[in-house]
Design a protein that fits this description.
With about 300 residues, the chain is α+β, with helices and mostly antiparallel strands. It is about 25% helix and about 20% strand. It binds a DNA duplex (16 and 16 nucleotides) through loops.
Length: about 300
DNA sequence: AACTGTCCCTGCAAGC
DNA sequence: TGCTTGCAGGGACAGT
């Protein structure tokens, strides 16, 4: 599942490949991928343009074009961007293919089996109409200033369970289920701790771990899971999965304390793994609310 | 304001 | 072997 580190790795890959290259062909075969607009709008918006910048906000990629329009790409669960040579076969589930000029023609393929991902060409001046969620994104802990005071204000100003809070893109943009679990574990914070009641020390640990884990994961070019499909533009896996301590390890012994057995929680279809020994629930949490499934 | 469940979708694994 | 079922999850949305 692409989260901030994976999307940032893809962003860097795009910056190294497509900038300054003119679009000479566009093939849209997946109507669902361009559902926000239409295949024609994506074709017309891309053909003949040249990307001049690639940005990222949370898990959203934004490619700025010389036409003064922009492309929003969201990979959601299973989306990939792959850089293909002219003779390479199109992978199955390729929904949009954009070919660039140059010494040799190369193609950027948007591949997405589950079709949750999206490609939208839009006018940034009208972003609030076409992509209202962009303006509602919270602070990006890698791209924006994000000091301890920023996190303290976020946490103190709300009375929410800390894991759903970390996952809320309107509050902090870019953290998904994998990194949320890893961050909470490293910070020794229970996923059901109440944000407003975190101690000052816990806020400090949480801040340190958000920054450290996301930075380390970006440096490792993201996490490639056994079943998940994340790879970078060149098809290379990331390596941060070797440093996961809780994600995917429910029922196994905690690598950190060597004593706890990692537990699995589920709220509304989202799973959480944590160590009940390392991550104790302080008095303010509401630990009885979730359905516990303990292997 | 905060939370829950539903939907969208495919690939894979487990169970029968 | 071949089916069915469940699960994975990001984010919008509706309902409480």
């Amino acid at each position: 599942m692409p989260e901030l580190p994976e999307v940032e790795t893809v962003r860097r890959g795009l910056a190294e490949t497509i900038l300054g290259r003119r679009v000479v062909d566009v093939v849209v075969t997946g109507a669902r991928t361009v559902r926000r607009t239409s295949p024609e709008a994506v074709f017309d918006g891309l053909m003949g343009t040249t990307p001049i910048a690639v940005r990222r906000r949370g898990k959203y990629l934004l490619v700025m074009l010389d036409s003064r329009e922009a492309v929003m790409i969201h990979l959601r669960m299973s989306g990939q961007l792959l850089w293909l040579e002219e003779h390479d076969a199109r992978p199955s589930h390729t929904h949009v293919a954009v070919t660039f000029d140059g010494e040799r023609r190369q193609t950027l393929a948007f591949v997405d089996p589950r079709t949750f991902g999206e490609v939208v060409v839009f006018d940034p001046e009208r972003a609030d109409v076409v992509l209202p969620e962009l303006a509602r994104l919270g602070v990006d802990p890698v791209a924006d200033p994000f000091d301890r005071a920023t996190l303290a204000a976020i946490v103190r100003g709300r009375s929410r369970l800390v894991k759903p809070l970390l996952l809320d893109q309107h509050v902090i943009a870019g953290i998904g289920n994998i990194y949320a679990d890893e961050i909470l574990h490293a910070a020794k914070v229970h996923p059901e701790a109440l944000s407003s009641r975190l101690s000052g020390a816990a806020v400090t640990r949480l801040h340190t771990c958000i920054v450290r884990i996301l930075d380390d994961a970006v440096a490792a070019r993201g996490s490639t899971l056994v079943d998940a499909r994340y790879v970078d533009l060149m098809g290379e896996s990331g390596s941060y999965q070797t440093r996961h301590r809780v994600y995917g390890r429910a029922g196994l012994r905690c690598l950190t304390c060597g004593r706890g057995i990692l537990r699995h929680l589920r709220w509304s279809g989202r799973s959480t793994v944590f160590c009940p020994v390392c991550q104790r629930l302080p008095g303010g949490g509401r630990g009885q609310r979730a359905i516990r499934i303990t292997p």
